[in-house]
Amino acid sequence: MAFLIFIGCKQQSSQDGPNQNQETAEQDSQNNSSQVEGSGTILFFGDSITAGYGLDDTDDAFPGLIQQKIDSLGMNYEVVNSGVSGETTAGGKSRIDWVMNQKVDIFILELGANDGLRGVPVSETKSNLQEIINTIKDKSPDTQIILAGMQLPPNLGKEYTTDFKNVFPELAQKNDIDLIPFILKDVGGIAALNQNDGIHPTEEGHQIIADTVWETLRPLLDSE
């Protein structure tokens, strides 16, 4: 189920180029941060899933749909989409300092899929994610963190896929942060919910992802 998603991340990275995508995400993050004065900020930090690859309007990606849910409830939060297509945990680690130069109330961390695609050692992926979490906590101790879990296809080997899957709950428990067990729940591998490439979620697929994220995010908004 997750295999197709990983292939999509790789294809997208080669088409768009990580530098170009990172510059775009950083510029969007900077632009959005200027709009959030006086309100809370929810920052989505991830890869092509967060970025909304292949959609006509990136506002139809799940972070944009979360903003719609927030607006419909009259909550005073602004969503910042800092997704970069093809991003790895190492790439995320390299730009987290810059991203955290703005005030962030809730940080959703969605990285790891491209590490699995490239066969990065699980220990390295886990270490990179931990360093990202450490940076967030060091620069903004009051920021609440949500870690989005990912899974790998079984053809990559049972030991590797099991160890990879366990990274996310282990980090969530160790750091006392909230966890979305599998961000592609009820979407990954379902043809009707993915684009013609069979890889990236359609608008409807992103709506389901938004609902999955909302289950974990909504209680944090009440506690703010």
Short note summarizing the structure:
This protein is α/β, with parallel strands linked by helices and 224 residues long.
Question: Could you characterize the architecture of this molecule?
Answer:
This protein has 224 residues and is α/β, with parallel strands linked by helices. Helix content is 53%, strand content 12%. It has a five-stranded parallel beta sheet, with helices on both faces. Strand 4, helix 8 and strand 5 form a beta-alpha-beta unit. It starts with a helix and ends with a helix.
List the helices and strands and how they pair.
Elements: H1 2-16, H2 18-33, E1 40-46, H3 48-51, H4 62-72, E2 77-83, H5 89-99, E3 106-110, H6 113-117, H7 122-139, E4 144-148, H8 158-175, E5 178-180, H9 203-223
Parallel strand pairs: 1-2, 1-3, 3-4, 4-5
Helix pairs in contact: 4-9, 5-7, 7-8
